[in-house]
Amino acid sequence: MADDLSRPREVLSSEILPDDFIRALLQEQAPELANMPFGRRYTDMEEHFSVRVGDELIVEFPRQHRTPSWDPVAMEHLASASQDWDFDVRLPERICQPALGYPHRFEVARWFDASTAIRSPLRTEAARDLGRALAQIHTEPTRDDAPLHEATGASMVTRSGLLYERLAQTRDLRSPEGSGVDPDAVRLAWEAAIALEPTLPRTWVTGSLDPRTVMALDGEFTGLVYWREMSVGDPISELGIATLLFDPPGTDLLLEGYGVDTADLRTQMRAIALKRALLYVHADNPAIARLGWTRLSQMGVLADPTAA
């Protein structure tokens, strides 16, 4: 049976594990769950997919390697710090180990009733609550062994290569309205940001902030899910990504809730938002791709399709 259920080292982003394989994994790692009914699958994220198990649980299966991955020090901090947070947090109840050829650890967590912000968009006023939530998360670490985030643990300057790579990959892409990305406008925004000193120190970060990990109910922010990559990194990155969840007026409210607002911080947040939006326009998920194009247009970095 194990041979039949083996998988390659990397689960393809297009692949959703079949029920019999999931049951076999649960039998190995969480046998009390193996015979429970499976419900809806959530496949919005490129990095992982989720399966409802019974009425109260959800299992998160990574599709890609990440560092860190449910680091024990980060999980200890999350369990302690989240007791004082004023928003819902889907805490891991169990971290299961790789088995049967599936190469990743995976998470069992308790379900709470809300939708992701990409499925149920947040009202602009909810930006204030999201900013307040991020301020609670973004505290400076007190332990020397706190893990660094693989990407945002480094400075913005060292991430320039990825920005330019994404810019090159969008050269021939067009928005639904026929506009292309203006590479000079993007480069100017990025170079202005990296010329500045960091405006915030490294802090704890969720490590995976995204419209698909922010939860919403009736337009209100309710909480955050999926803490696999919680670690120490650049809080500016998460603030920049958070701006993509709202039309431009949301940035004022986001920073009001966060409690810090400077011109330099906004410059760096905008550069991060551009970098992430350049990723989103490649997404197979049409809602994410549309969000990327919309925000690039609002940030003024799309070329006029009618210009000669």
Helix and strand run = HEEEHEEEEHHHEEEEHHHH
Helix content: 25-40%
Give the name of the CATH architecture of the largest domain. Answer: Alpha-Beta Complex
CATH fold category name of the largest domain: Aminoglycoside 3'-phosphotransferase, Chain: A, domain 2
Strand order of the largest sheet: 1-2-3-6-5
- State the secondary-structure class: alpha+beta
**Number of DSSP helical runs:** 9
Give the oligomeric state of the chains in this entry, treating copies of one chain as homo and distinct chains as hetero: single chain
Biggest β-sheet strands, sense, barrel: 5 strands, antiparallel
Got a strand count?
11
Low-confidence stretches: 1-11
Could you state the CATH homologous superfamily of the largest domain? Aminoglycoside phosphotransferase (APH), C-terminal lobe
**What is the CATH first-level class name of the largest domain?**
Alpha Beta
Give the overall form: globular
Explain what the structure shows.
33% of the residues lie in helices and 15% in strands. The chain has 308 residues and is of the alpha+beta class. The protein has two domains: 19-113, Phosphorylase Kinase, domain 1; 116-298, Alpha-Beta Complex (Aminoglycoside 3'-phosphotransferase, Chain: A, domain 2), CATH 3.90.1200.10. The strands form three sheets. A five-stranded antiparallel β-sheet has the order 1-2-3-6-5, with no helix packed on it. The chain is globular. Residues 1-11 have low confidence and may be disordered. This is Phosphotransferase. Residues 75-271 form the Aminoglycoside phosphotransferase domain. Pfam families: APH.
